[in-house]
Design brief:
This protein has four helices and twelve strands, in the order E-E-E-H-E-E-H-E-E-E-E-E-H-E-E-H.
Length: about 240
């Protein structure tokens, strides 16, 4: 019988398998672990998942940054990969993140619309860098980026916001929030005061929902918050 229901299966070092069937898998990855990389010396989530499931065809249909934790969808064949990518192109993949920022957003909720220049893009905006930059809308090679955000809770030092992506640009959340001075805690690359000791950042891919590529269902999963002091505090604010 096909496995169609969410499950919890801990991978040895890199996260938790939270959904599995014959066509796709969803993993809640740990912060600091790369989903996939060209550096052959690094162990990746996709390598570990392939080894544990005995399925060499597995490939991620989207990615989250290495210092970010949370849910990632994997296709179990090239055909399924293409089907899910089609759903992404039609805006049918829904993703929500939890971000901890050092400065309370003002207003407390809203929509951010920017144009971004991502690393590796060509254009007349200057030298390439590791950072995605917010640029003027008429900048050659820039791409539009849209997200929605809502403040969920505040403490003396931190604010927790829910972020829903309408587009999926490289480092989009980190760049758009930092541009307004709402730096993600620990994200020194984008201007946070200090990095985390474990080199993670306070950004978690909390929720993912996608039409099933074969069955007449929508698959929806949430990834548990990391078991760190910061995220335990976040849990108390939600």
């Amino acid at each position: 019988m096909e496995q169609k229901t969410p499950l919890t299966l801990h991978l040895p070092t890199m996260g938790t398998l939270i959904y599995l069937d014959s066509w796709l898998a969803i993993v809640a990855k740990e912060a600091g672990e790369p989903v996939q990389t060209r550096d052959s010396s690094l162990k990746t989530v996709v390598q570990e998942l392939r080894a544990n499931l005995g399925d060499s065809r597995l490939q991620p249909v989207h990615r989250i940054d290495q210092p970010v934790s949370g849910a990632v969808i994997f296709a179990r064949s090239g055909e399924i990969f293409s089907t899910i990518h089609g759903a992404i192109g039609r805006g049918e993949l829904h993703r929500a993140y939890l971000a901890v920022v050092s400065t309370p957003p003002e207003p407390a909720q809203g929509v951010l619309r920017d144009h971004l220049m991502v690393p590796g893009d060509s254009g007349a905006s200057g030298p390439r860098t590791r950072r995605t930059r917010v640029v003027h809308s008429d900048t050659e090679g820039s791409r539009q980026a849209v997200l929605r955000y809502e403040t969920l809770g505040r403490s003396d030092h931190h604010t927790v916001i829910l972020v829903e992506l309408e587009t999926g640009r490289h480092h989009q959340i980190r760049a758009q929030l930092a541009h307004r001075g709402w730096h993600v805690v620990g994200d020194a690359l984008y201007g946070a005061r200090r990095p985390m000791r474990d080199r993670s950042i306070a950004l978690h891919a909390w929720y993912v929902s996608v039409p099933h590529p074969v069955l007449p269902d929508r698959i929806t999963c949430t990834a548990d918050l990391p078991a760190t002091a910061l995220w335990k505090g976040v849990g108390r604010l939600l």
